[in-house]
Design a protein that fits this description.
Elements: E1 9-11, E2 17-19, H1 20-50, H2 54-59, E3 61-62, H3 71-74, H4 82-100, H5 104-125, E4 131-132, H6 136-153, H7 156-168, H8 184-200, E5 210-211, E6 215-216, H9 226-238
Antiparallel strand pairs: 1-2, 3-4, 5-6
């Protein structure tokens, strides 16, 4: 709720009042978080390119190689070409921002979940003697989260945003299917992790007080005020009861 300086009352899409300034502040934090993430990825790409992409080969995900498990964490920051990072950067910023603007802390928890599930999925199921690198699995994780978050949180505006994103980027669903030379495994596991994150990180709403655990009591039900009791006694007295 907002009271001062002519602030506007802003709903969350389900009738509950929200704080417009707080929402805008969180969106601004989400914007700068994603700017920072992209800056890091592009700096790493420049170093990686100058080193002949040896960083990707050494710190990518080596399928079922226990010594290469660190690649689960490092691979999203590494790419295999300029075209690769250019293709990931736009969707990463869009879906990352949409995933983060409801809360950066929740977004960080979501990111950890997506990175681990996507990376481990690629590590376990990719073809033998392959190295996986790139932020695609994280992109698909954010994509899945943005699509389902509104349904789990029951925010109408987020449902609309999710549907619009699903329609605008419908062609991306084809990349979840097996393709030679593409880490579809990381995409698929990232997408599943994003959907799971939508459920795990959904908003918990307090339950209304219930009558015997059956249904909510209407306001004022079962209550008598001193005035109403006095009126009842007076009526009984007038009737001679």
């Amino acid at each position: 709720m907002f009271g001062r300086r002519g602030a506007v009352k802003m709903g969350s899409g389900d009738g509950r009042p929200g704080d417009a300034e707080a929402v805008l502040a969180e969106a601004l934090r989400a914007f700068w978080v994603m700017v920072g993430v992209l800056a890091v990825i592009w700096v790493v790409q420049a170093v990686n390119w100058a080193d002949g992409y040896r960083l990707s080969l050494h710190y990518g995900i080596h399928t079922r190689d226990v010594t290469g498990l660190t690649g689960v964490v490092t691979a999203p920051f590494l790419h295999l070409s300029w075209a690769h990072i250019e293709g990931n950067s736009g969707p990463l910023f869009i879906f990352g921002f949409l995933a983060a603007f409801r809360g950066v802390k929740k977004f960080l928890s979501l990111t950890v979940l997506i990175v681990l599930v996507s990376g481990m999925g690629a590590w376990l199921t990719s073809g033998p003697n392959t190295v996986t690198a790139g932020a695609s699995g994280v992109v698909f994780g954010y994509f899945g989260y943005v699509i389902v978050r509104g349904f789990f949180d029951r925010h109408r505006i987020d449902i609309v945003v999710g549907l619009v994103m699903a329609l605008c980027f419908a062609y991306q669903f084809a990349v979840l299917l097996p393709h030679r030379g593409i880490s579809w495994q990381g995409h698929l596991f990232g997408f599943v992790a994003g959907i799971a994150g939508g459920w795990i990180l959904r908003e918990r709403r307090p339950r209304a007080a219930t009558d015997g655990g059956t249904r909510p009591l209407p306001s004022g039900a079962g209550q008598t005020t001193p005035g109403s009791r006095a009126d009842l006694l007076k009526e009984l007295d007038d009737l001679g009861l």
